[in-house]
Amino acid sequence: MRKAVTVVAACALATGIASAQMKPKAPAGGGGAPLTVTGGASQMELAIQKVRRISESEAQRMYNNNAAVLVDVRSSQQFALSHIRGAVNIPNSQLVARLKELPPGKTIITYCA
Length: 113
Hints:
It is a single chain. By secondary structure, the protein is of the alpha/beta class. The chain contains four helices and five strands, in the order αββααβαββ. It is 37% helix and 14% strand. Strands 4-3-5 form a three-stranded parallel sheet. A hairpin with a 2-residue loop joins strand 1 (37-38) and strand 2. The longest helix is centred in the N-terminal third of the chain and has 20 residues, at 2-21. The radius of gyration is 15 Å and the shape is globular. The termini are close together.
């Protein structure tokens, strides 16, 4: 489990960095607020800075207390081969589009191994 938490933290960081590098698409119909730049940092970059690493025991405690959801960000084929019991599979490329599928009010713990 210690390896999984380390991987979770690494994947969360990698997901955040990859997401920050994506250019946001203009919303259809011109609605919605675009990302704004403040002092050279986008809202996404600021959000990434808030991502924190957690220990294996903290991840396990949060999951066992129903305070967190585990999200495997690998492909569905990789997920089918092996995954942490109880994890939800949302491939990294679909994460932003499918965030609404995740329960509100819970910590989201991502991993990719």
